[in-house]
Amino acid sequence: DAGVIQSPRHEVTEMGQEVTLRCKPISGHNSLFWYRQTMMRGLELLIYFNNNVPIDDSGMPEDRFSAKMPNASFSTLKIQPSEPRDSAVYFCASSFGVGAKNIQYFGAGTRLSVL
Amino acid sequence: GENVGLHLPTLSVQEGDNSIINCAYSNSASDYFIWYKQESGKGPQFIIDIRSNMDKRQGQRVTVLLNKTVKHLSLQIAATQPGDSAVYFCAENSGGSNYKLTFGKGTLLTVNP
Question: Given B32, B49, B89, which is nearest A43 (Cβ)?
Answer without folding.
Answer: B89
